[in-house]
Automatic annotation (TrEMBL):
InterPro entries reported for this sequence: 3-oxoacid_CoA-transf_A, CoA_trans_fam_I, NagB/RpiA_transferase-like
Record organism: Fervidobacterium nodosum (strain ATCC 35602 / DSM 5306 / Rt17-B1)
E.C. numbers: 2.8.3.8
Lineage: Bacteria, Thermotogati, Thermotogota, Thermotogae, Thermotogales
SMART domains for the chain: CoA_trans
Top class in the EC scheme: transferase
Record keywords: Transferase
Name listed for the protein in its UniProt record: 3-oxoacid CoA-transferase, A subunit
């Protein structure tokens, strides 16, 4: 784990990459890194996230600035601009049931070939997907999700990179930390090694490549 600036972090994110971004309606989203993506106009991105937040917050800023070519999310209901771009054919949107999305990310991190879920059977969600029947019940085979870079947010870390999240701001962040080739975390503070009890660690530092501190440019 290495502590770097936001400007250094942004050099790892290239146009056309697939990136995972933690957060739920902007809570638990690395806002500082997103602001740098917008500032540097890094575009043609495929973003995997729970949602696209709102136009003025989190991933919504990437949508408003038209930096995404595709999003894989569980819903877009809180961002009218995402809806407009989708209807206009300016943005590809893949909607995935929230639990299925989480498990697909988990499968990507665990090296699994996919997951079986009954969610979506008999709906448009099953279109184009393999249906597997087990003991008389139908399941959809959902493929794993992985990314070039995961951008996550934590409340604090120690100098080994061990992370602690702030309550529900944890959301998708731990899963995404396991499912990308490179992981950059934005933290509110860095504390000495030993200041975080082992049983408080939610994401071990071995998964973290780089750390940036929120508010420090």
């Amino acid at each position: 784990m290495k502590v770097i600036t936001h400007d250094e972090a942004i050099k790892f994110i290239k146009p056309g990459m697939t990136i995972m971004i933690g957060g739920f309606l902007g809570v638990g989203t690395p806002e500082g890194i997103i602001d740098k993506i917008v500032e540097n106009r890094i575009d043609n991105l495929t973003v995997i996230a729970n949602d696209t937040a709102t136009p003025e917050r989190g991933i919504g800023k990437l949508i408003v600035n038209k930096l995404c070519k595709k999003v894989i999310v569980s819903h877009i209901g809180t961002n009218p601009e995402t809806q407009r771009q989708m209807i206009a054919g300016e943005l590809e949107v893949e909607l995935v049931p929230q639990g299925t999305l989480a498990e697909r990310v988990r499968a990507g991190g665990a090296g699994l070939g996919g997951i079986l879920t009954p969610t979506g059977v008999g709906t448009i969600v099953e279109n184009g997907k393999q249906i597997i029947e087990i003991e008389g019940k139908k399941y959809l085979l959902e493929l794993p999700l992985k990314a070039d870079v995961a951008l996550i947010k934590a409340k604090k870390c120690d100098y080994y990179g061990n992370l602690v999240y702030n309550f529900t701001a944890e959301n998708f962040n731990p899963l995404m930390a396991m499912a990308a080739e490179l992981v950059i975390v934005e933290v509110e503070e860095i504390v000495p090694v030993g200041a975080i009890a082992p049983n408080e660690v939610r994401t071990p530092g071995v998964l973290i490549d780089y750390v940036v501190v929120a508010g420090v440019k």
